[in-house]
Amino acid sequence: MTETLNNSAVILARRPEGLPTPEDFSVVTQPLTPRAEGKIRCETLFLSLDPYIRSVIAGNHLGHGIDPGKVVPGEVVARVIESDDTDWPVDTLVRCQGGWQQFSDHPSEALARVPTELSRPSLTLSVLGMPGLTAWAGMVDLAKVGPGDVVVIPAAVGGVGAMAAQLARRAGATTIAITSGPEKRRIALETLGYDHCIDRIDDDLGTALERAAPDGVSVYFDLVGDPTLTTVAQRLAIGGRVVLCGLIKDYNGDHKTTGPHPGLWITKRATVSGLVVYDYESQRQAFEAEFVPLMEAGELTANEEIHNGLEAAPEAFCRLMRGHNNGKVVISLAD
Amino acid sequence: MTETLNNSAVILARRPEGLPTPEDFSVVTQPLTPRAEGKIRCETLFLSLDPYIRSVIAGNHLGHGIDPGKVVPGEVVARVIESDDTDWPVDTLVRCQGGWQQFSDHPSEALARVPTELSRPSLTLSVLGMPGLTAWAGMVDLAKVGPGDVVVIPAAVGGVGAMAAQLARRAGATTIAITSGPEKRRIALETLGYDHCIDRIDDDLGTALERAAPDGVSVYFDLVGDPTLTTVAQRLAIGGRVVLCGLIKDYNGDHKTTGPHPGLWITKRATVSGLVVYDYESQRQAFEAEFVPLMEAGELTANEEIHNGLEAAPEAFCRLMRGHNNGKVVISLAD
Q: Would the CB atoms of B274 and A261 count as touching at under 8 Å?
């Protein structure tokens, strides 16, 4: 038995209008309710912040969402602190949907083990978490990226983009980043090893793509929607593949992406696939078989932007939704 | 040697604005120029009229087109009337790109043989011609239609639609026609064997789809573009396949289709493929291996709308572009 604990949590104060602001969230402290029988109590060490949470707090993420007053959801790395399950003893490191809070209780089937060989457990949130699985689903399963491919990735240094780029490079493809500002350009080219980097603000995207991909783009991993989608699609090679995965601008609710003209897909003989990462949980074993050894060998760069303390989460999330992050955004709750 | 012949032809008089009118075309008669060495002279028996010709005469069909003053192109069934090639003797029945004219000259590699067992050679233009190959490419190669699929086909009794529906039925799918008027409804249900028929004018498409496909549409063969595309896409089953093949409204130049919101493709985990039938010429052998026996056994209904005389072509084409045809439009030049 442990002493009575308080639980710090970030709750949704109100639904954001457009770009979220820190005032849309509240940090609250409440006594922990007793742990239900069979549940395993976990203490969050690292919390993953991801753009899709914007549509969850808008209440319309693939038909579900949360209401004001509720703890904001999110994937975490946590440490088991109370458990009756001998398979999950105290001090086990786990990955789970802990949310933006200090403590959370889970059935054992909702927990995943964190590989013990990691240099730091937070890497689990980028490489083995939602971003890594999304990148794997898009690049390997849907686009089937291979040698000779020319792959364009917007939000290029973010959680999903950084993983997708490394997968594409390892498969022998040429990689083109779309990002903004000198710091992200440096990360894209030097840290993540992109072959080219286009500044979405300073460069004319169409012209820059013609220079970087003179024979056309064979794979586009769309994380942002229009107008980037249509501009890249116009420079697609014949038979190009487009993976539709994210609509970061639409998530803010102040922008309604329209789709490219269907004639464009016909002319390019394109294959366009919609990707929802939840569908890939059943393939997690194949994904981990590929990723865990690479991660343990230090061959994947996670490119994290770490902020300290749960109270930093609202501001860090707002920066993420403005595209001001320089990598996978992680909140550290570890001492 | 034959006597000097005149050649009747339909030329493009001017580029149509919006829906074409018969005045956009002229019927002319000119003396035949001498046959070049190695060419095979053919006399047209049947001429195929197809919607894609609208964008050819607009000058923008996949980067090519024709200018006013030129003979309108088109696929024909013809009879060899002059030949030095013993493989293609006089009286051989061939399929070729003869255009809207009485006589045309071709190298042997531009000719395809018409199966001799056909009840009438015009069937070649629907079943073995561009419409049949398009339907095969869309249903078999791209959508991989199979048992349990729910397939929606607009322009349902036209050349491509009629073939696609029969392929889908043979593969064990449920077929839903979108068409207009009682005559086409009768053809769709009685002649072509669709399971359901939705009237695009009298019915509310969304409501009718929910009734005919309560579990969603698994395959949509798009021949028309928006707004039908978006309405059907909204009722797509998870994992649905959409083959983008035609944009009949856009061909008329008075309508600019917009694409469905990319979020729709994501939510539906859709696979959207652009189809250009010219890419499938190299697979013609596989296609014919499947279609010729069926056609010879009378198992495919061509559903032709035959008009007599080359001079009937402009008016018949204009009806086609208004969607007033009741089947695959063929002009007979045979006596």
A: no
- Per-residue pLDDT tens over the stretch A128-155: 888 999 999 999 999 999 999 999 999 9
Which of B55, B230, B265 should one mutate to test binding to chain A, selecting the residue with the greatest count of A CBs within 10 A?
B265
Residue A61 Cα, gap to closest chain B Cα (Å): 9
Q: What's the average model confidence in pLDDT over A154-177? A: 95
Question: Quick check: ipTM above 0.95?
Answer: no
CA dist B90 and B41 (Å) reads: 9
B279 and A269 in contact by Cβ < 8 A?
Answer: yes
Our measurement of the distance from residue B24's CA atom to the centroid of its chain's CA atoms, rounded to an integer in Å, reads 21
Contact A261 B265 (CB under 8 A): no
Contact B262 A247 (CB under 8 A): yes
Residue from A144, A244, A276 whose CB has the most chain B CBs within 10 Å, to mutate: A244
For residue B222, the chain A residues in CB contact (below 8 A) are: 262
* Residue of B55, B222, B237 lying closest to B142 (CA atoms): B222
User: What is A68-111 written as a DSSP string?
Assistant: TTSBPP--EEEEEEE-S-TTS-TT-EEEE---SBSEEEE-GGG-
Q: Quick one: pLDDT at residue B254?
A: 58
**Residue A181: both structure tokens together:** 């500002």
Q: Residue-wise over B281-320: b if at least 16 C-beta within 10 A, else e?
A: eeeeeebbeebbeebbeeebbbbbbbbeebebbbebbbbb
Evaluate whether B118 touches B124 at the Cβ level (below 8 Å). yes
pTM across the whole model: 0.86
Mind listing the domains of chain A with CATH numbers?
6-122+302-332 (3.90.180.10), 130-278 (3.40.50.720)
Check residue B97 and give its pLDDT: 95
User: Average pLDDT, stretch B139-165?
Assistant: 95
- Nearest-Å Rg of the Cα atoms of chain A is 20
All residues of chain B having their beta carbon less than 8 Å from the beta carbon of residue A260 are 259
Please state whether beta strands A271-274 and A304-308 pair in parallel, antiparallel, or not at all (unpaired). unpaired
Stretch A165-191: mean pLDDT, rounded? 96
- pLDDT single digits (tens) B222-276: 999 888 999 999 999 999 999 999 887 666 665 566 788 898 999 999 999 999 9
Distance from CA of B67 to the nearest CA of A (A): 21
Closest by CA position to A77, among listed A128, A37, A35: A128
Nearest residue to A155 via CA among A331, A330, A320: A320
Cβ–Cβ gap A226/B262 under 8 Å = yes
